[in-house]
Amino acid sequence: MPEEFFGTGSVVQLRKILESEKPGKIFLVFGKGAYEKSGAEAALSQLLAGIDVFRFSDFEENPKIEDVRKGIEQFRSFEPDLVLACGGGSALDMAKSINVLAVQEGDPLDFVLKKKEIIRSPKPLVAVPTTAGTGAETTHFAVIYAGKTKYSLAHPFVSPKYSIVDPQFTFSLPAAITASTGMDALAQAIESFWSNKSTEESKGYAREAISLILPNLAVAVSAPTPEARGAMSKGAHVAGKAINISFTTACHAISYPITSYFGVPHGHAVALTLPGMILFNSEVDENTANDVRGLDYVKNMMQELLGLLGAEDAVVAKEKLERLMDDIGLERNLSKLGAGSAESRQLIVEHGFNPERVKNNPRILTAEALRFILKEIT
What we know:
CATH superfamily of the largest domain: Dehydroquinate synthase-like - alpha domain
Radius of gyration: 20 Å
Shape: globular
Distance between the termini: 40 Å
CATH class of the largest domain: Mainly Alpha
Order of helices and strands: EHEHHEHEHHEEEEHHHHHHHHHHH
Number of helices: 17
Largest sheet: 6 strands, parallel
Strand order of the largest sheet: 1-8-5-4-2-3
CATH architecture of the largest domain: Up-down Bundle
């Protein structure tokens, strides 16, 4: 678990980290637009004065193996003492992947595909998020796309050594990104809560995240206040801690082809099936319960989740999340997102069954059930 610094103005704690680590050279990975617009560049450049910094931002959203390779090449040639990541989930994941894979011997893709094991520890990594979304600053995995397929590079070495969550860097975040990343964080919290790998600790984080995100997301999108931004940053960070233990489930698995093939931003893609999945998981029975803790556990857990969402039953919870998506301007209709045809839905079904994530869902999800959920939002 990273050493954490949280709160508006907490970026100054980077000075303390630098005094402790004493790096002569820093490899800085940042998102092209976000770094300047968020105010992070102005804040960090003062703190980094006098240190040799290599700046790397030559990558696309949704990290690709080709971009990771480019970063590894630059990393090895520069030979940094510390890595600093600043941006949204893509920038943080890119930095995490480069940092850990640059010090291994062999083709980076072999480690992504689990053909080779990560054995060498990387450089210290400091993660500074500029969105309230992925929680990547606290997790031990990183997303990498090879072609259209999404993989997860997972290992304790992937986790940052330090995280600085300073809500001020989200204050200028556009409404659309606030909405999409905020729904990602909410979905992480909900999926973590019902995950078959949940523990009392992860459920505690998920409860806290839901209580922070649910009342603040629409405010942060439509009429942002420092308080709402702060709550969203905290909520996303805590949701990241939750999935670091429990991992995500079906909604995330289904989202990846929606992003890969139809260009829907990650958080928006995850949110599309979240309302329907709440209803689906609530209708669990003895033949479809998928958690080793048993049917009664799943039913009681789902009942508690509905309470956390402020809903008396699953239909109300589904409608509440649909209203939230409408309020924050996220399209709920697959057809309007270019993914509504029968062929498109079949593509999502074929590529949305990541075995790890689907088997993590508390109710067995079949291709037929997924087709029904997708048809409902076409």
